[in-house]
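FIELD: query
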Amino acid sequence: MRLLFATLCALALSACGSSGESDDASDGNSASDDRPTVALIMKSLANEFFVTMADGARQHQSQSEGAYDLIVNGIKNEVDLAQQVALIDQMIASGVDAIVIAPADSKAIVPALARAAAAGIVVVNIDNQLDGDILAEYELRIPFVGPDNFAGAEEVGNYLAATMQADQSVAILEGVPTTNNSQRRTAGFLKAMNDAGINVVAQQSAQWDQTTAVTITSGILVQHPELDAILAANDNMALGAVAAITQSGRGDAIKVVGFDNISAVQNLIREGRILATADQHADLLAVYGVEFALEALSGGATPDNRTTPVDLVTIDSLE
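FIELD: result
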């Protein structure tokens, strides 16, 4: 059985090709045929956030003393829905016991997850919450284990607002518009700005992507030369915003905040080039999902959502 499983995993890895990554993080002990296999399916492995997430999951598995096997999967970019669907189908074919997924889209991934659930696989949703209406349409109850993106973004926005004056101008860089986490972070940013009387003069999607954020931010700066700050829904876009602002020669005049707390942004916070970000603890986020899945497999979990920590990161918290 273990030989068959290893063969199927190898086929799945081969099928990923250049668009995805898959690895088997089991400890190689073939003595136990009945220990569960958990598949972690993430978004872009070009994003440090998801690399950190994968590393945290691997460390948790390595310390589990053979309690479960782990397969780590990821896609090449944030919007490669077809590849993420393919990974789900590959994990179904491999006969995994649970799938812990950070979906690239809150709606389009649900039909594939319905196939997984129909195959008897436990599914746990992390990072980006699936759309409730679509889940209901498929009669699915998939728990969400992750942070309150609205609250985290509002806290970052409030921190920025405290450094500004009413009637100043800001722009928001959104993630993929069809994802729940992008929508909730944008809503949190908007509430903080509206409560402080700060004008949101531009609101555009940069698709979670640093290079796209450079282009979008450059255009916003031309259209709104009076701009005082940019709120980016993830740190990759915050890095792109900083690059565009630097190119414009206004590096000291425009404040930037992000979301995710990747190491590159921590460095820029220390340098004073980014004001703040939000830490949703990437190293633990998949671990929370895996632990929830293991509880469900043992019969001890209920299909209720679980909120995980999200914390404000500033120069003060980094010192």
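FIELD: remark
Residues 135 and 141 are 7 Å apart (CA to CA).
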